[in-house]
Each structure stands twice: as C-alpha cells, then as structure tokens.
C-alpha cells in the first residue's frame, strides 16, 4: 500500500499508465505541430488530434467538431461564459448560476458583473440542490445564459440537469454545465441531457494536467462564442494557440478508457465508498453531507462531531491524503462556501472532510482509512471528556 493513501481524486488523479504510453511518442518522435500542413510531421499530429477529438466527443455524445481543446476546465469555463456574454449584442445581459459552483464559474461571473452584466446566484437546499422553481423565477427577458454544474466537487451532489435544460430551452436561453467532476464518472450525454455548452478536464479522469475541452453545440441551437484568446485561428477560431498535442492525446485516451470501464468501475468504487461510510457511521455523531441527494459514486463528504477538524487532518496526514474542500480553496482558512450554502453550522463545516476514491483505490486503502480516522476521532473524543490520555 502506498502511503499516504490517496483519497483526493476530486482534486486530481494520477495519469493512467495506458494514457501515458499513448502520449509519450508525441513528445519526441511525433513532435509535429498539428497546424503544419506541408509535411508529414504536421499531418501525424493533426491525425492524433482528430482521433482525440472523436474520443472526447464519443464520451459525451457530441460531434467531434463540437469539441474545442483548452488548457483545462477553468479556461473552458471562461471561454463559455465570457464568450457568450461578449457575443450577444444587447444592452442588458443577465446570467443565472448557483452559489455552490466552482470558483472558475463564480469568479468569471464576478468579472461579468464588473463588465456591467447582472448575475443571479441561486441558493441550494440542505442537500445542495437548486430549486427548479427558483430557477424559473430568476429568468428575465435579459437572461442569456444559465450555468449549473453537473456535479459538485466537494459533495458529489448531482444537479437535475435534464430538468434545468428543459427550462432553459423553453425560454430560449443557453445552458452551460461545468461537468468537470461528472464526465467519465457517470453517464453524461449532451444530446439527451440537453446541454449547449459543457466543460471537462483531463486531470480529473486519469489524464494529464493542463488540458481540457469545451463542448459547443453546433445545431439546435448553433452556439456562437467570441474567442477569448486571439491568434492563429485554431479550434475553429474559438481558441488560438498551438495545440498541446501530447496533452490532447492523453485527454482522448482518458476519455476512451473512461467510456470502456465506466459501468464496471462505478460498481467497484461505489462499493468502496459505501463500505467507508458504513464503517465510519459506527462511530456515532457522524453525518454524511447531502446524503439524500443523488451523488457521484466515488466520493463522500463527512462531518465528525466532537473532533478538532484542524488537528484531525494534520494527525492523519502521514497516513492519508484527503481534504477539507476543493483544492483551490483548501489552503485558505475560510470555511467551505459550498457547505455553508447548504446551511451547515460553522462548527460542522470545520469538522467536514471530502474523501474521493478512484481507479487505483483498493479495499485495503479503505480499511486503512477507516482505521486511522476511527482512531483519531476516538482519541479526540476521549481527550474532550477525560483530558489528554491515550485511548486504551
Ligand atoms: C467542478 C470543477 N470545475 C472546474 C475545475 C477546474 O478545472 P481545471 O483544473 O482543469 O482548470 C475543477 C477542478 O478543480 C472542478 O472541480
């Protein structure tokens, strides 16, 4: 067992050796620029990018020409939101999103507000879900975009995507879904789900860091975006810059493997996750956050009562790698805004942790994690009641 046991797959995943193998030639032998049209080095790279485009499209039920490669989900989100906002020529422009979105969405929306746009941040209930009624009520004549994440990175909560899409369509509003945590983990299909713009990232699905994609619907409706990076007109003029061929090849194979393995892998990780939850609930005064919502199969967010959260994560550190909230905000002392929006008390938020299993997690990892956490929780509770003596 590799120590510390890695339980933070929502932050990032290791590159699958099969993915790495496919990428390697594109760093050296096959180093061509995919935009070079006059020799075989370029053609070879272009062909590899075409295959990857197809692999990504297949995983989400899209057409290859609807895939725009980016440097990751953050860039894809920026392109989608700013690209729609800039492209629509009307005086007042309004966007609807949710207060539990990733910072990539929230901070981009803040930018839109600075540009004079208006943004509604929908609240969520105690299970982290938006109300469809709230969504309908928030729509105005000026609403140009609805942006709701597919699944949350801290809790795994899956939003009612098809219902949201139906509402967006009824009002002729574009629907963007940040599906960074959902793609490759559960079945996501832009056609049946009714999504117009969708973002994904390779490093959450056993591909490399620094590469992702934006799905841009080509018909019913054809979505137009204003590019946010100008240059050579790559990616159908939506995102200029020499393509990261090895990264894109890696993203393609990460998608290919996720498609092939999803059903089997889901069964395996959900069994690990459920066993982990059941074992920890035995400790009492333990709560699974958003327990009643539909959640991603591989992760859980758990509050432990009567412990010192800060100490717990520190004490577990040499055995286990997990986190408080998202990797982007875990360094700050600010309590999770996702759990806060769900109505959790500050104390409970402080004692809540995200555990996310993955392709390389084993039963042994789960057993070890349960053992370590149970020991620390019991120790903290004992110290609370009896002062600083070891538990016997
Ligand atoms: C839900 C969600 N959206 C967006 C991102 C940003 O992805 P990237 O790291 O590819 O920019 C992440 C990753 O942290 C995420 O979890």
Describe this structure in words.
With 392 residues, the protein is α/β, with parallel strands linked by helices. It has 2 domains: 5-12 and 262-386, Aspartate Aminotransferase, domain 1; 17-256, Type I PLP-dependent aspartate aminotransferase-like (Major domain) (Aspartate Aminotransferase, domain 2, 3-Layer(aba) Sandwich), CATH 3.40.640.10. 40% of the residues lie in helices and 13% in strands. The chain is built from 12 helices and 12 strands. The protein has helices spanning 17-23, 40-60, 73-87, 103-114, 132-138, 161-170, 190-193, 245-281, 309-316, 337-341, 346-350, 363-386; strands at 5-6, 67-70, 94-98, 118-122, 143-147, 174-178, 197-201, 212-216, 286-288, 299-304, 320-321, 352-356. The strands form 3 sheets. The protein has a 7-stranded mixed β-sheet, sandwiched between helices. The protein has a 3-stranded antiparallel β-sheet with strand order 9-10-12. A two-stranded parallel ribbon has the order 1-11. Strand 6, helix 7 and strand 7 form a beta-alpha-beta unit. Helix 3 packs parallel to helix 4 (103-114). It is globular. The mean pLDDT is 96.
């Amino acid at each position: 067992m590799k120590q510390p046991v890695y339980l933070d797959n929502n932050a990032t995943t290791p590159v699958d050796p099969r993915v790495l193998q496919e990428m390697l030639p594109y760093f050296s032998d096959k180093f061509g620029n995919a935009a070079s049209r006059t020799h075989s080095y370029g053609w070879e790279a272009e062909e590899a990018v075409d295959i990857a485009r197809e692999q990504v499209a297949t995983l989400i039920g899209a057409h290859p020409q609807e895939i725009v490669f980016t440097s990751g989900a953050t860039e894809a989100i920026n392109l989608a939101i700013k690209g729609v906002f800039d492209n629509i020529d009307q005086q007042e422009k309004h966007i609807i999103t949710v207060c539990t979105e990733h910072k990539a969405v929230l901070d981009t929306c803040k930018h839109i507000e600075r540009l004079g746009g208006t943004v509604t941040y929908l609240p969520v209930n105690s299970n982290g879900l938006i109300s469809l009624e709230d969504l309908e009520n928030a729509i105005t004549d000026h609403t140009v975009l609805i942006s709701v994440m597919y699944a949350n990175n801290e809790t795994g909560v899956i939003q009612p995507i098809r219902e949201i899409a139906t509402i967006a369509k009824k009002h002729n509003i574009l629907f963007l879904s940040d599906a960074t945590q959902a793609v490759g983990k559960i079945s996501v299909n832009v056609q049946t789900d009714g999504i117009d713009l969708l973002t994904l990232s390779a490093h959450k699905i056993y591909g490399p860091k620094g590469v992702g994609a934006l799905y841009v619907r080509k018909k019913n409706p054809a979505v137009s975006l204003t590019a946010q990076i100008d240059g050579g007109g790559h990616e159908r003029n939506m995102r200029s810059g020499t393509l990261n061929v090895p990264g894109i090849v890696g993203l393609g194979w990460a998608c290919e493997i996720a498609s092939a393995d999803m059903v089997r892998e889901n069964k395996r990780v959900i069994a690990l996750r459920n066993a982990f939850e059941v074992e920890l609930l035995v400790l009492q005064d333990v709560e699974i956050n958003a327990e009643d919502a539909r959640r991603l199969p591989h992760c859980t967010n758990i509050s432990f009562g009567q412990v010192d959260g800060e100490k717990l994560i520190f004490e577990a550190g040499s055995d286990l790698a997990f986190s408080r909230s998202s990797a982007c905000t875990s360094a700050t002392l600010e309590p999770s805004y996702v759990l806060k929006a769900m109505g959790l008390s500050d104390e409970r938020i402080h004692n809540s942790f995200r555990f996310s299993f993955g392709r390389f997690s084993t039963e042994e990892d789960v057993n070890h994690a349960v053992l370590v956490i149970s020991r620390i929780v019991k120790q903290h509770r004992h110290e609370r009641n009896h002062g600083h003596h070891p538990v016997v």
